Amino acid sequence: MPVRLANAVWKGSLKEGKGHLRLESGVYEGPYTWASRFASGPETNPEELIGAAHAGCYAMFLSALLTNNNTPPEELNATAKVHLGDGPTITKIELQMVARVPGIGKERFQELALEAKARCPVSKALAAVPEISLDAQLV
Fold first, then answer.
1. Whole-model pTM above 0.85?
2. pLDDT per residue over 79-128, tens digit each?
3. At what angle do helices 106-119 and 46-68 cross, to 10 degrees?
4. 46-138 is classed CATH 3.30.300.20
5. For labelling alongside 120, which of 58, 87, 96, 136 has CA 20 to 30 A away?
């Protein structure tokens, strides 16, 4: 199985310092700061990257389940809202899915959507998060 690599370099104090993130694949490389994490700075932050990873993993896992159900999706649009609370700690993740899947009923879609939430590797890695909700809509 593959091993994935990401690198973070931080220079300076917490509030005045600056960091740089890089993915081994080279598809992302950029800055992060205290402001981008705890205020409204323009750079990225670890929680945003966790959200992207969770949304991407969830969409792919649901696609596999739908395909194995003989109802491959036309489009899956996943969003993950990662809430950062005191501590700091991730207190909640809201997964949202809007899906176009021909030939599937709403009840079966909901079953597979919940199964994907429970079984995708990133959901499993985030098991310590107190709440991960799901709003899955079939359109």
1. yes
2. 999 999 998 999 999 999 999 999 999 999 999 999 999 999 999 999 99
3. 130
4. yes
5. 87
